[in-house]
Amino acid sequence: MHHLLNSKSANEIVQSPEYVSFRSTIPQKKIVVDDDPRKVWTMYDAGPKHIKCPLICLPPASGTADCFFRQIMALTSRGYRVISLQYPVYWTMIEWVVGFRKLLDHLNLDKVHIFGSSLGGFLAQKFVELTTSSPRVHSLILCNSFSDTSIFNYTDSAVLFWMMPSLVLKRMVMSNYTKGNLPPEIANSVDFMVDQLDSLTQPELASRLTLNCMNCYVEPQKLSDIPMTIISVHLRQFQFTKFSACECDTISLSSSDVSPTSGSPLDDIQTFENML
Question: Model-level pTM?
Fold first, then answer.
């Protein structure tokens, strides 16, 4: 948790050969698709470019495009195309959906699979819901996501996030991590995500928390035709906190059509779960 006060990271994941290989072999790209040049999408696009239905990875509120590096390295080594994204600053759901649709148009992608973690999963569901007249999503994989922002109990104060100092917003997120001794692999993962959180600017984090907590919900009937896999990863530091996406008894795991012949980015769901 010290990284908010220490700009030099000593995180083992950042220094690992796997992450160093990722950053040295896969270029980070910056793309603007809006009229406002300040709205920049950051992305890693790895794997065969002839694949026109890739896996798009959308991070949680505290994550960046880097947080999917293990999925990128593992899946691209098996011939899949994976695109990991980091959002620009969007303050409303409609803005985000329009911006994401413009990005898909820019990348010449008519259909995509989406893996979304927490906020990323919620945004993916809203994108499906709001583009039913012209569907762009082949399937969804949702990890610790949610369908109604009211579970966070911040719907009334979300409109004020834009004016809160960055340190206050970051501490709001970090306060939900359990302190104390954790298994080394979990502690390293938490430190890595704290590094990602620390790299976000105040507008970036404030806009994400606004989307995460504003009064909004998914209309499930508009997602009924989309193959969907739901993954619940319950780590001790997130369970039973106001930022936990859902409890065990509300989750069902359904396997979507994920065979390579269908154009899906996964051989089977176990492959993906093993990388989380």
Answer: 0.81
